[in-house]
Amino acid sequence: MLTGSDLLAKVKELGDATKSELVRECGYVSTKKDGSERLNFTAFYEALLEAKGVSLGESGQGRGKGGRKLSFVTKVQFNGNLLVGKAYTAQLGLEPGDEFEIKLGRKQIKLIPIGGADEDE
After folding, report:
1. Are 51 and 66 in contact (CB under 8 A)?
2. DSSP 70
3. What secondary structure letter does DSSP report for 82?
4. Among 87, 108, 111, which residue's Cα sits nearest to residue 99?
5. How confident is the model at residue 28, as a pLDDT?
6. Residue 118: is its pLDDT beyond 60?
7. What gap in Å lies between CA 13 and CA 34, rounded to an integer?
8. Measured distance CA(9)–CA(1) in Å, rounded
9. Structure-derived torsion over alpha carbons of residues 62, 91, 64, 47, reported in degrees to the nearest 10
């Protein structure tokens, strides 16, 4: 699969080829279980946008699954739990099993990574 300047050069070289021909010639093809060809249009267009300098953002950075913007607001749930969603933990690079010390202030909660410094970020 071509990327970057190689992809842009090939697209320019192919001129007025069909969309399917562009995808195929640039290598965005895979083989299905039945042996037939599958053209990967999404991967091709994402690579083309990236090659042209259009950034679609890091995966999971600032957006949840539905493409919603992070609100940085949450509510205490009916059972008393306070939920911090996956989009936030992904943005901070947190992994399952990461541990935090809970520090209570006046009307605030601070989560301090175990072994980390108490910093205001």
Report:
1. no
2. P
3. B
4. 111
5. 92
6. no
7. 32
8. 13
9. 70
**According to the model, what pLDDT value does residue 25 have?**
92
CA distances from 44 to 11, 27, 37, 83, 102 (A): 11, 9, 15, 37, 45
Residue 76 clears pLDDT 80, i.e. is over it: yes
115, amino acid identity: G
3-state secondary structure (DSSP) of residue 30? strand
Bridge-based pairing of strands 37-39 and 100-105 is unpaired
* Tokens matching residue 75: 């509510």
Structure tokens at 98: 């990461």
- Residue position matching structure tokens 């080829």: 17
Angle at CA of residue 99, ends 97 and 104, nearest 5°: 145
Token match 């699954």: residue? Answer: 65
